[in-house]
Amino acid sequence: MPLIDLKSRLSDLKYGKDRPGGGNSVPLQPFVRKSPPSGRSVKSPDFLVRNGFLFPFSLIDDFIRVGTYFTSVDGLLFIAKQNALALTSPTKSKTVLEFLKRDAYSPITSLAQVALSGLGVHFTGKGFNPVGNIDYIPPIKERTSRVGYSRSPGLIDPPGISFKGVPDEVKQKKDPFKTKGIDSEPLDKVNALSIYKSSDVDNTKPINDFIKFRIAAIDNVNPTQKEYIHFRAFLNGFTDNYSAQWNGFRYPNRGEQFYKYGGFDRTFSLTWTVYAQSKAELIPMYQKLNFLASLLAPDYGTNGFMKGNLIELTVGGYLFNQPGFITSLTYTAPEDTPYEIGVVNSPPLSIGGEGEQDLSVKELPYRINVSTFNFTPIHNFVPEKQKNLYNGLGNSISEFGNQRYIALQSENNNYSSDAGVRPNGGKIDSKVLINKPVNSNG
Hints:
Elements: H1 55-71, H2 73-87, H3 96-103, H4 107-115, H5 140-144, H6 168-174, H7 189-192, E1 196-198, E2 213-218, E3 226-230, E4 235-249, E5 258-275, H8 279-294, E6 299-300, E7 306-307, E8 311-315, E9 319-332, E10 367-377
Antiparallel strand pairs: 1-3, 2-3, 2-8, 4-5, 5-10, 6-7, 8-9, 9-10
Helix pairs in contact: 1-2, 1-4
């Protein structure tokens, strides 16, 4: 039955008994209590701010409500929990003063946020100085001059907020693409390394990686020369597929099928990721991807006839300077990759505005997945069963044949006993190369 039918006056209803079992909240809730209006409630149109000219009164109620909560048992426990979490932060403060200024949770900040809500001001909620600890946001000039850092068109910096004196390490954390100045230097020198031509790997260049990963295009006119492209070995995986053909036939009046060996084939599939970690890497990365794609197109001689392109592929010690040719190649730009937008230091920020294009880059994704790379090896031996020698103790293997589909090679090969390998299962001696220059065999 509705209260109005009981002829009850709402002003006669009492606070309290709001807990399960009839207990009272401490302090009694709600924190803000007012008498019900005697007549029609006062309203104001939503003009300029929410709730119109009644907006200040709503702010006062919110301020009192939140402030009273912080003085309650639950509020004090909330403050204690927030500061306990701040003490476990990975970036711990070195001193108590630094903790109070930078990491501590203060209800003062929350109360200041409540008091200024609706005005577009935002505080971080950290430290006991809500005004002096606003999250660092680079000004427009600084944002648009760095690769990979952008905001929505028309978004401006908060008025009255100064970014002077912000530590460089803070700026670094907020802008991961900042390296050295406006025109950044490459973070990954392997990725930024351009294509070069040589008879062998140029070890004076920054080509060092955890594993060797390179593609060398053999010159069709002078096969002693090769065009080298190096990618960072962000390998997603590879598949080495061997197949044998057996032709079936049947004799008259025989139900089963007989087989005759018909041939051998091998294909090698590899996928990897190419990622520009700085502005200086973006264009060289795409130049190398373009050259790699061109290896599937023909090369024309002076007589006008087409020539195919042979390469040498090195993937760690599994394939080492392995000759062959590429049969298919696919580039995929993932949905979650960031894009270079090509905007320079020219406020106001408006995408496509006159005079704001950065000519040193193009609007390109930072990450490309080489999702298909099919390679057919051309072996430097006759593909056949490996011809091993078994002169060891108990007819154990004493020498591996030259049919080495898996190279196991870099500085030396691990099929030979002088490489620390004991074919008969004996002790393996570790060998360390010290102060020896690395060449194409290393």
